[in-house]
Structure to design on (586 residues):
């Protein structure tokens, strides 16, 4: 039987999807986009702008890691941006209004996010409300609570230790970038190489198979949502520290960008396939896009439109590829 | 030697009696076909064997032990394994991930961090398992969803084998398979038998049942209505026992037309 030998490109594509769970197209898009921006703007190709992009990507990057875990497990978290806002306000409230030491502010950020995520997880697994509705509700709840705590105004006057987390530059590298890279390395190791990560993807692939294999499905989902909330809390800390204020409106629409980054990076919208490496490429694409459009003096309204369009396009391309592959 | 022995198994759901005292025995290394019309109680009977349902009355002995009170996990540890029709595979994961899902071998990363999956060990054992079944897969690193139905069946059987079962229950393994693939799945069943593993085969495809089993048990209205030795029966008899008399010649002809 004469079977058609797949071409070199097709083989590399398949290998990268199977081994690394990365769609190579995303890397190509990132390079093409960077080249285009470099040609269009003389300011794009510089070390300081490069660090700027990474800095701007750090918050979104951490949120995108959370989105990768949740979507990879077959779930969805629309509350990422709001929980991030709530966490930032909680941290600022503890540090400024209560005047507690900075370490408690850091804990407050992550704890506030973790609690919101834990509530999401409990509702999804015990109350049988779909994740879409639970986290959409949490989007409103967390944002409202952030406004209540801060009385609708940003909380200023953070202690220097907190500000250092957002603005410090050891060895010239911004702290948020260092934190993002460390978070990504740990997250990548967990998702790709541990039993927890493999069970996460198996769960997103087929809940029935995971259950039959003895994985405690509901318990696992609760951990994932709690983790997602805690990461949103970390993103809130980074943002609050960087702008030196607990802003209750921080992170509006960030879930849109974070989910887009995860999907561009090769996460299957319906679960079962995800990689942190891919998500980081996706987050960089979003960062380069926003940075480039800003350098080109495109109004931020249009940037918002661009992100929305990219999300739809990314899902379209992914599903197109999936259908093409399953037609073999 | 009798491996599994059911006596007088009754099971009802509310007012609906599904099993009215089923007797069934399976010897070690024996392949038993379980046939019957829709609603005859095949699935309910299998679930009382795996422990998902608890029989109302009757006794179940496995390997000389009374297992009536045991839950599915305990029965699995004793060596009862079931492969469902949907195979319960994670289609986007590769062969080894599916075979070892939930029981991945682990190692310490850099001798420090525990809980890391030993992928190379997993792949090695998975290949060995597939080889033991005498089966061929395109690549062990491909996602299972890209395989054909028969190849997926192979993965599901390999997964069952890792539990070191004494009895494997297979629910319609050859339904929805291409003709060529049916033969390879039947070969897998023969391979299990040759390793001394007993198989209960639930199937509507009587040709497959007649070709691979030692005995055929016909379930009808919640009773084991007939217990036939495969070598001494034929399609006509099996069909007539399934439908319960009547115009069996027409029914058999219909069955053979498929």
């Amino acid at each position: 039987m004469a079977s058609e030998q797949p071409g070199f490109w097709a083989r590399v594509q398949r290998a990268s999807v199977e081994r690394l769970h990365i769609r190579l197209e995303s890397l190509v898009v990132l390079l093409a986009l960077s080249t285009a921006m470099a040609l269009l703007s003389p300011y794009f190709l510089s070390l300081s702008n490069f660090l700027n992009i990474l800095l701007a990507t750090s918050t979104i990057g951490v949120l995108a890691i959370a989105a990768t875990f949740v979507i990879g497990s077959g779930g969805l978290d629309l509350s990422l941006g709001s929980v991030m806002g709530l966490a930032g306000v909680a941290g600022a409230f503890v540090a400024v209004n209560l005047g507690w030491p900075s370490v408690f502010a850091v804990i407050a950020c992550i704890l506030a996010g973790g609690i919101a995520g834990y509530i999401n997880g409990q509702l999804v697994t015990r109350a049988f409300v779909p994740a879409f509705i639970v986290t959409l509700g949490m989007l409103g709840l967390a944002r409202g609570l952030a406004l209540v705590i801060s009385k609708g105004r940003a909380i200023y006057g953070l202690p220097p230790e907190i500000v250092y987390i957002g603005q410090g530059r050891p060895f010239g590298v911004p702290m948020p970038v260092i934190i993002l890279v460390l978070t990504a390395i740990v997250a990548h190791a967990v998702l790709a190489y541990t039993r927890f990560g493999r069970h996460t993807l198996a769960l997103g692939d087929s809940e029935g198979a995971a259950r039959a294999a003895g994985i405690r499905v509901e318990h696992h989902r609760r951990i994932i949502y709690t983790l997602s909330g805690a990461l949103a809390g970390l993103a809130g800390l980074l943002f609050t520290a960087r702008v030196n204020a607990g802003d209750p409106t921080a992170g509006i629409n960030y879930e849109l960008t974070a989910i887009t980054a995860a999907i561009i990076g090769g996460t299957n919208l319906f679960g079962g396939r995800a990689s942190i490496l891919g998500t980081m490429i996706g987050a960089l694409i979003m960062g380069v896009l926003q940075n480039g459009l800003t350098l080109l003096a495109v109004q931020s309204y249009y940037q918002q439109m661009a992100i929305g369009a990219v999300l739809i396009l990314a899902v379209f391309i992914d599903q197109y590829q999936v259908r093409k592959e399953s037609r073999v | 030697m009798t491996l599994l022995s059911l006596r007088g198994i009754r099971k009802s759901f509310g007012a609906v009696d599904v099993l009215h005292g089923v007797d069934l025995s399976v010897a070690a290394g024996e392949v038993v076909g379980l046939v019957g019309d829709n609603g005859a109680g095949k699935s309910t009977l299998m679930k009382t064997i795996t422990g998902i349902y608890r029989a109302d009355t009757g006794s179940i002995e496995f390997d000389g032990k009374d297992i009536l009170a045991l839950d599915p996990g305990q029965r699995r540890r004793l060596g009862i394994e079931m492969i469902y029709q949907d195979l319960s595979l994670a289609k986007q994961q590769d062969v080894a991930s599916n075979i070892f899902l939930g029981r991945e071998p682990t190692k310490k990363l850099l001798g420090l961090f525990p809980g890391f999956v030993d992928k190379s060990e997993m792949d090695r054992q998975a290949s060995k398992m597939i080889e033991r079944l005498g089966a061929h897969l395109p690549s062990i690193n491909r996602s299972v969803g890209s395989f054909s139905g028969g190849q997926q069946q192979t993965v599901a059987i390999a997964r069952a084998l890792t539990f070191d079962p004494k009895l494997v229950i297979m629910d319609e393994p050859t339904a929805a398979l291409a003709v060529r693939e049916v033969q390879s799945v039947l070969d897998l069943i023969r391979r299990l038998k040759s390793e001394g593993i007993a198989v209960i085969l639930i199937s509507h495809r009587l040709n497959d049942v007649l070709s691979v089993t030692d005995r055929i048990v016909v379930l009808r209205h919640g009773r084991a209505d007939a217990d036939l030795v495969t070598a001494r029966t034929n399609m006509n008899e099996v069909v007539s026992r399934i439908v319960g008399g009547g115009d069996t010649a027409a029914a058999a002809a219909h069955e053979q037309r498929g």
Remarks:
- Chain A touches chain B through 26 residues (CB under 8 Å).
- Chain A has a mean pLDDT of 90.
- Residues 217-243 of chain A form the longest helix (27 residues).
